[in-house]
Design brief:
The chain contains eight helices and 14 strands. The chain has about 350 residues and is an alpha/beta fold. The chain folds into two domains: about 150 residues, GTP1/OBG domain (Spo0b-associated Gtp-binding Protein, Chain: A, Distorted Sandwich), CATH 2.70.210; about 190 residues, Rossmann fold. The structure holds guanosine-5'-triphosphate and magnesium ion (MG).
């Protein structure tokens, strides 16, 4: 899945402070010499990778980035304070273009790039004192900070796509495992467009997960919100399918009457699996054949835990990894990350069609 985000920013570094012209004035020194201090340097604009970000949206509201100017020099040889750098967080994968040329690629979690250099502070008149000019009446002006208009482009490719019925707990999972904070609510179609989260398993292992709007039967024909996002799923390396039977109507009714048989529960869960599987197959045979992790979500609820036990074997014989997890309690979360990381890294990348 590729999301393209593009935005323009103007990065302006701080100017250097002017050097000072000043003379020593002390009661007992009749001819005070020059003592004007240097101006401080201007702050730089620095782009820094941030694993918690996955869009450039903030820049569309705030395209002007300005670092602080250096302070002018003072009397008695005082150097002006340097301006603070403007350190701006950008998502990993951000590419920086200047006049259509790629000038930086913020690709790793610790990447830092100086986008605009601050101006040097000017020298004060004390600096220019020499044998031939003992009383220079001039000082240097601070240099202007650099200023550029850049285009930032973010192309994120998601490694894992989350699929499942609306309300299955996809966004809650993304919120649990990444720094992203998608909207979560107890009604269907809370998520209306995909969003990404960067999952940091540990220092050296990361992957990107995509939260996708819920799929419903008929999605491949355009029902619900699904179809346009099924297209994106084609680009992910692997899928995690979330199953949640706790809001299935016949299950709930039987449960309320105290007559929930194993068969009914198993059937309801497998049916949910099949319905999504059918949509995937109808959309693309190739996508449906990719190894998939089937996760029974909300396993803090006994109902889902029981459904997991009842269906595990059958789903495993179909070649899928099967786990139970709860984004509410953390149960099975670490295991899911290990499995997904392994799936992502064992799979050849899908073909890179342009989107
Ligand atoms: N008990 C329990 N509830 C959960 C868990 N995960 C999610 N929920 C609840 O399930 C409801 C739906 O969660 P979402 O994460 O919004 O579901 P979704 O799959 O993203 O839904 P859509 O965006 O509508 O497709 C919310 O009320 C969540 O609080 C869990 O692990 N345990
Ligand atoms: Mg959602």
């Amino acid at each position: 899945m590729k999301f393209i985000d593009e935005t323009r920013v103007i990065a302006t570094a701080g100017s250097g402070g002017n050097g000072a012209i000043s003379w020593r004035r002390e009661a007992h020194v009749p001819m005070g010499g020059p003592d004007g201090g240097d101006g401080g340097n201007g702050g730089a604009v620095v782009f820094q990778a941030d694993t918690g970000l996955n869009t450039l949206i903030d820049f569309s509201f705030n395209p002007l980035i300005k670092a602080e100017n250096g302070q002018p020099g003072g009397p008695s040889g005082q150097t002006g304070r340097s301006g603070k750098d403007a350190v701006v967080s950008v998502p990993i994968g951000t590419q920086v273009f200047y006049k259509d040329k790629l000038v930086a690629d913020i690709a790793s979690p610790d990447a830092r790039w100086i986008a605009a250099k601050g101006g040097r502070g000017g020298k004060g008149n004390a600096f220019f004192k020499s044998a031939t000019n003992r009383a220079p009446r001039f000082a240097q002006s601070g240099q202007e900070g650099e200023s550029f208009e850049f285009t930032l482009v973010l192309k994120s490719v998601a490694d894992v796509g989350l699929v499942g019925f609306p309300n299955a707990g996809k966004s809650t999972y993304v919120a649990r495992v990444s720094a992203a904070s998608p909207k979560v609510a107890d009604y269907p179609f809370t998520t209306i467009k995909p969003s990404l989260g960067v999952v940091v398993v540990d220092d050296s292992r990361r992957f990107v997960v995509a939260d996708i709007p819920g799929l419903i039967p008929g999605a491949h024909e355009g029902k619900g919100l699904g179809i346009q996002f099924l297209k994106h799923i084609e680009r992910t390396k692997t899928l995690m399918q979330l199953i949640d039977v706790s809001s299935n109507e016949s299950v709930m009714t039987a449960e309320a009457n105290g007559e929930l048989e194993d068969d009914l529960l198993r059937q309801a869960a497998l049916e949910q699996f099949e319905k999504i599987d059918y949509e995937l197959r109808a959309f693309s045979e190739e996508v449906s054949k990719r190894p998939r992790l089937v996760a029974f979500s909300k396993c803090d609820l006994p109902l889902n835990q029981r459904a997991l036990q009842l269906c595990r074997e059958q789903l495993e014989t179909q070649g899928h990894g099967v786990i139970g997890l709860s984004s509410a309690t953390g149960l099975g979360i670490a295991e899911s990350l290990e499995s997904l990381y392994n799936l992502v890294n064992s799979e050849p990348s899908p073909p890179q069609h342009s989107s």
